[in-house]
Structure formats: C-alpha cells, structure tokens
Amino acid sequence: MYDYIKGYVTRVTPEYITLEQSGVGWQIMTPNPYAFHQSEEVQQVFTYLHVREDMQWLLGFKTLEQRELFKKLITVSGIGPKGALAILASGVPAQVIGAIEREDETFLVKFPGVGKKTARQMILDLKGKLGDLFTEIEMPDTDVTLLSMAENDSLEEAMLALQALGYSQRELSKVKPTLQKEEELNTEAYMKLALGLLLKQK
C-alpha cells in the first residue's frame, strides 16, 4: 500500500492531478484538484488505493488527516469514494466531523449523494469515533488567493470540477451568478466560494 508519493504536479484537471515521480505520471483523484498547482517544486501527496473488480482508483490528499477522514467515510454504507471526495472537497472537514458529533442531518444532506438515510448512517457509524481527527485537522485558510490578472477559464474549470464531484447543473446555476461577480479569483478560490454557497443553499 502506498502511504504517500513525492513528485512534481504536471497536470491539473477538474477530476484529477498528474504527479510525476521517477519518470512515471501518477493519475490521482483528489477532493479538489485545484488545491494543487503545477510546479517544479516537489510536492507530497498522501495516497489511498481503492480497488474493485472493475476499476482501480489512486486517490490523493494534501494532509494525512484528510486521508484518514476519507477512509472513515467510505466505511459508511451508501458512501463510495466519489461521495467521500465530494464531502472533503468543501475544505472544512472539521465542520463535517462537528455535524456528525452534533447529529446534524440538515448539514450532512447538503452534500451530493447524501440523503437522510445516508446522513443517519454516517451519524450511527461514525459518531464518537472521529475525536482524534477533530483535534488534528487543520481548518482551511479563509484568505483567497487573488491573481494580478483575471483568468477567464478559472470559473469554468471550477464548474467542471464541481460537476465531477456530483453537483447538478441546477445547483450550480443558482450559485454561478454570484461567482461571476468575482472576476479576479483563481480556480481554487472559485471552488471554495462555490462550495460555501452550495452548503448554505439546502
């Protein structure tokens, strides 16, 4: 089992990043690919290999705590790797853990693919079992990174990434007008803003 891979991020797409290490390009699914940036600096990605009869996914996370929460989430009936990635994409895992501990179903059903039954199952399976993660998970930086020049493609890249996580066109059409008012954000910042708006909608 791979614990982590160190290499260079050579590609960032709405669904995955490519991490080059020793001449091999690893295609890695992540909660928010735009949290990574193409760079000549070596980056460390914590990994999890998900194997089924018909597929293999290599998943990657910026922190060890993110990965451990992902592993807890996929033990819940009704939550697969894609659903767990969508939950982690919000960038605020401490809020997810807090909602589970408070038995806050209203918050949990805001994520794609999580209905009341799955939210109840999350609480039943995970409440009281995430305390160690709660104290260690870092809250995201609330400061958004601004670009000196607006990138017209950044918003569309963010929309594609959100679709890949399972958000519908109808949900995205409700938040897009607000996002369009922010003309100088990069893709990661658009993602953070959009996810915050989406979690307030339902």
UniProtKB/TrEMBL annotation:
One Pfam family per UniProt: RuvA_N
Domain Helix-hairpin-helix DNA-binding motif class: 71-90, 106-125
Region (Domain III): 150-202
Main location: cytoplasm
Subcellular location: Cytoplasm
GO molecular function, one term: hydrolase activity
Keywords, sorted A to Z: Cytoplasm, DNA damage, DNA recombination, DNA repair, DNA-binding, Hydrolase
The keyword Ribonucleoprotein belongs to this UniProt entry's keyword annotation: no
Record's keyword annotation contains DNA damage: yes
Subunit-level organization: Homotetramer. Forms an RuvA(8)-RuvB(12)-Holliday junction (HJ) complex. HJ DNA is sandwiched between 2 RuvA tetramers; dsDNA enters through RuvA and exits via RuvB. An RuvB hexamer assembles on each DNA strand where it exits the tetramer. Each RuvB hexamer is contacted by two RuvA subunits (via domain III) on 2 adjacent RuvB subunits; this complex drives branch migration. In the full resolvosome a probable DNA-RuvA(4)-RuvB(12)-RuvC(2) complex forms which resolves the HJ.
Function: The RuvA-RuvB-RuvC complex processes Holliday junction (HJ) DNA during genetic recombination and DNA repair, while the RuvA-RuvB complex plays an important role in the rescue of blocked DNA replication forks via replication fork reversal (RFR). RuvA specifically binds to HJ cruciform DNA, conferring on it an open structure. The RuvB hexamer acts as an ATP-dependent pump, pulling dsDNA into and through the RuvAB complex. HJ branch migration allows RuvC to scan DNA until it finds its consensus sequence, where it cleaves and resolves the cruciform DNA.
Family under the similarity heading: Belongs to the RuvA family.
Swiss-Prot/TrEMBL domain comment: Has three domains with a flexible linker between the domains II and III and assumes an 'L' shape. Domain III is highly mobile and contacts RuvB.
Protein name per Swiss-Prot or TrEMBL: Holliday junction branch migration complex subunit RuvA
